[in-house]
Predict the structure.
Amino acid sequence: MNKKISLLAVLTLFAIQAFSHALWIKTAPAGKTGQAQTVTVIYSEPDDSPEKIADWYSDVKEFELWLTAPDGKKEKLTLTAGEDRYTATFTPDKEGVYILSAGKTAKDLGGTTVYQFNASAFVAVGKAALNNEAAKSNELALFTDVVTKQKVNKPVKLQTYYNGQPAREKMYVSVSSPSGWSRNVMTDENGVAEFTPLWPGSYALEVSKSWKQEGEHNGKAYTGFWRCATLSLDVSK
């Protein structure tokens, strides 16, 4: 009996750990034509240190990082592995908004749940016009205005997308601030959520969706599905 309880506790803890970690794309929110832009991808909780790549959940480290240029051209970036992060570079050749995206459905189940990780980042170069089309490429995605600089005490609007369309189902977006303060904000019927940043710095934003579903994944039966999408947002004074 005790062995059964211990096994259940381990499986529950494993599922919680998988749920709380996510992929994050980090890069400067503004770039220049002809100048290389560095991109970093980590796997961690919002307020925690990056986890060593060797310890990443399942096969999440086999994700692909894609760059979508302002003209819609899509390119897979080459990744270089470090101890706790992957890095890549790209050089903007035109003005506009560049969108970085990564998505990975883990090979292994967390208990009986399938886990999918999505992440996005946006880089505004020169005179950029806001374009959200490429932001819809992940099955679940967060989008915000990167052309206008976000400032302290000014409301920030977040748009959630599910399967390429504004998410109609209300979901919570977790907001973690540079000070350690965090809160959840709920999307409305159009998939829009709003929060007001109180401190300058980088904010970690995460939306997730889970539901009951039965099926088979890599030869194993599952009873639930969980997706998350992350976005880092820089806020100035």
